[in-house]
Amino acid sequence: MYAPNIYPPAATTVYVGKIASSVPDEVIRELLEACGQIKKWNPVKEPSGQSKGFGFCEYVDGEGALRSLRLLNNLKLDGQELLLKPNTATQKYLVWYEQQKDEQRRQSDSCRRA
Q1: CATH number (domain holding residue 23)
Q2: Which one of 7, 17, 39, 110 is CB 3.0 to 4.6 Å from 58, fit for a cystine?
Q3: How many CB atoms lie within 10 A of CB 10?
């Protein structure tokens, strides 16, 4: 019986937390952008405009989200380690995304050997 490719909806939102209050928002945005193209960066702020020390970054694709999780999680900034975590939908999508990349790599490798 044929089963079509079933894939989760694209979800690329990453929680970015434990941001030291002394680190400017521009620095966080530059670090996130170094990992991939950002669709939206939403730092959470107090009514006064002061940062609450966390935010949410949505990447254009899975590669940016994966890169940020690998490179920025536990990165020490001004004495505090960043905490990056995907939400459940993003985690499911990234698992599927990595499986697709692995499958493409295997197919590409088998074509080169043929």
Answers
A1: 3.30.70.330
A2: 39
A3: 15
| Residue the block writes with tokens 């670090």 | 31
Q: Is 17 helix (H, G, I), strand (E, B) or coil?
A: strand
Report if residue 5 sits inside a domain: no
Domains contained in the chain, number: 1
Mean pLDDT of the chain: 91
pLDDT digits (tens, 9 = 90+) for 75-107: 999 999 999 999 999 999 999 999 988 888 888
Residue 94 included in any domain: yes
- CB distance 62 to 10 below 8 Å: yes
Q: Which run of H or of E encompasses 27?
A: helix 25-35
Whether residue 102 lies inside any domain: the answer is yes
| Residue 3 forms part of a structural domain | no
Instruction: Write the single-letter amino acid at 107.
Output: Q
Q: With a threshold of 0.90, does the pTM exceed it?
A: no
Task: Measure the CA–CA gap between 98 and 82, rounded to whole angstroms.
Answer: 24
